[in-house]
Amino acid sequence: MTTGQLLPVFVALPLIVSAVAALNPKKALNDALGLIVPAINFAGGAWLFAHTAAHGTLSHVIGLYQGGVGISFVADQFSAVMLMATMLVALTANWFAIVAGETSARYYTALTLVLITGVSGAVLTADLFNFFVMIEVMLLPSYGLIAMTGTRQRLASARMFVVLNLAASTLLVMGVGYLYAVTGAVNLAALAGVAAGGGPATVAAGIVVIAIAAKAGVFPVHTWLPRSYPSTSAAVMGLFSGLHTKVAVYMLFRLWVVLFDMDPRWNGLIVAVMVVSMVLGGFAGLAEASIRRVLAYQMVNGMPFILVMLAFTDAQPRHALAAGLLYALHHMVTVAALVLNAGAVEETYGTGTLSRLSGLARREPWTAAVFAAGAFSIVGLPPFSGTFGKVAVVFAAASPGGWRSWVVLAAIILASFGALLSMMRVWKEVFWGRPMQQYPAGLRVAPALLAPSVALMALSLGMFLGAGLVWGAATSAVDSLLDVDTYTQAVLGDAPVGVPDASALLEGQHQ
């Protein structure tokens, strides 16, 4: 058995255990499985990162078919980092769900494990159609997780989530099918460089990108996210915040480097879309009436900070992509911490509505401290992960100079100011003001409810203090992402079958 043959285990393990959890009626065992499985995949991701750093990219074709024919799984340092980050958020969200009592719902744990199955497969697959399949594996349990409480509001939110994702999935499979029609392949390694010119292959790849960008919550189809996520429970929103949109980030980075070969012709379009997303996400939260709805717009605000880095890969691709990855890791940790912190308030006081809460800074000093730390990190203030995440993005954007740099830097300043105002508004409404009289004097957020968000903010602090190590890991991951030749060789092998000739396709497009 080769090392690469372990890759399908990352998908098989949570899927098999989800079946066990679905059949098992004992809550204690299901709770344990909900923590053990993401912990195992996290540890496996750490091992993959170390192994690929030492030995290079790992690959395995299901059924041992020849390269280019079968379904391929592949792991490099970039996919390993994303696997670790997603599993960490999943572990923490499940921890909060257990403490909050959400796992009392019969199939909660089973659904989260199926979601983890899809996430693991999505970041390890080297096949675009298989990526679509894994996205669907992620979505099916997500529909149930959103609607399982049965309230009218959550059912309405589930409808919005379903409609958007079904439309985006339809567009995604159409793009993959069109790409196969014009190239004869859906294997990422086999498609290296096919979208770097123009013509049918570029159009097909563009359809795939649009579909994935919609799932990432990017303007102009961003409103579904703040309308659906806050109506779920805090545990589910925390789970989604680190999984759904970040899987989209992973694939957009991979497509940009492998298929588009970082074609600079698209830089202007990327900047335009991401700048609008930044500003909307930064300020739209000012109009929301609950803590988690404000935080949902910080998710919308954070995505363009990550994806705008694609527009700067023509100058210093390593620096730009590493800055985007660093910001993505910070954003996953910080937003999940804030969502779970808001969830602890909701579980204790029965509401997250701004107008119904006040004076929590005196009543709940530890809860207030965690929220303040998360707000500092979102805005980019020390001593938390957002500081170096935002600094890295600013330096990468400023590096080439010219109109792109000035526009993006102005948008970063404006969006950060909007995020600051949004966080200050929540602080003013919820944590300042008179102590609430309608609740018993002894009512407090339980330490167990607060612990998951404390753990994540401690990690954010650790990322600030160990910024050199985190940056080193990000640059190593990006180096593996940029090494397309090694990726292609690992996936296709020495005698691949059905691999389109990218140069011939490009010549045909220009004729």
Quick structural overview:
The protein has helices spanning 9-23, 27-55, 77-100, 108-124, 128-147, 152-183, 200-215, 224-228, 234-258, 267-284, 291-307, 317-349, 360-363, 365-379, 386-398, 402-431, 447-465, 467-482, 484-492, 502-510; strands spanning 58-61, 72-75.
Summary tags:
2 strands, 511 residues, globular, mainly alpha, 20 helices
Which regions contain 5 or more consecutive residues with pLDDT less than 50? none
Using the alpha-carbon principal axes, give the shape: globular
How many strand elements? 2
Percentage beta strand: under 5%
- Give me the Rg, rounded: 22 Å
Give the N-to-C terminal Cα separation: 48 Å
How many helices? The count is 20
The pLDDT mean sits at: 90
Structural class: mainly alpha
Helix content: over 70%
Strand arrangement across the biggest beta sheet: 1-2
Largest sheet: 2 strands, antiparallel
**Could you spell the SSE succession in H and E letters?**
HHEEHHHHHHHHHHHHHHHHHH
GO cellular component, one term: plasma membrane
Protein name: Cation:proton antiporter
Organism: Corynebacterium liangguodongii
Family: Belongs to the CPA3 antiporters (TC 2.A.63) subunit D family.
